[in-house]
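agent> fetching stored inputs for the iron/sulfur cluster docking request
agent> found them:
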Amino acid sequence: MSNEQQTIMLSALQHYAYCPRQFALIHVEQVWAENFFTAHGNLLHERVDSYESEQRGNVRYERGVAVKSQQLRLTGKLDLLEVEGKPATKYFPVEYKRGKPKKEDWDKIQLCAQALCLEEMRGIHIEAGALWYWQPRKREPVLFDDALRRVTLLAVEGAHQILASGKTPMPTTNKKRCRACSLVDLCEPDTFRRDHSSDYIAGLFAE
Ligand code: SF4
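agent> prediction call returned; pasting tokens
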């Protein structure tokens, strides 16, 4: 498959949003390391996937819904889609996450991308969804407003550019993120930063 046709897994967008280098290490160089956080996240999704779809009152709860977008070249699965009414009048995607709600948009970007896929597939408009967090065991509502749609589309575009170039970007300058990253030992961000700065200084004095 050429890079032009390459599709991206929805779950990979949060890797890009967290750190473009992390996305490239996993999806271009195909290295992977499982730490407690990723292992626990996988376990949570296995549990969610094992539940069946069901109808309760006016709402149908669809689980493990496969989605894709040809326009955005995305594919993946929704943890839960709540469909209200018969015929359906409202769609509400829900994604289950380990840990606590975050200040950053990583999880929201993945959820918004799910909504964009559904909108394209079913010719509908989705206003909002929710993220369900394991630690507080509560739902955080997410509005798919213009700003979130914009950053989501930028993340999709950036991820496709990395795949097309096949190049791994330099480490993020956000060292706090590196400390919580499952790939820190494989990535060696400090070594790369050091090498890059010495190359840069050598370049300044080169003839
Ligand atoms: S260790 Fe830092 S630079 Fe490397 S992939 Fe993780 S977050 Fe990105």
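agent> quick read of the result: The first helix runs from residue 10 to 18.
agent> awaiting further instructions
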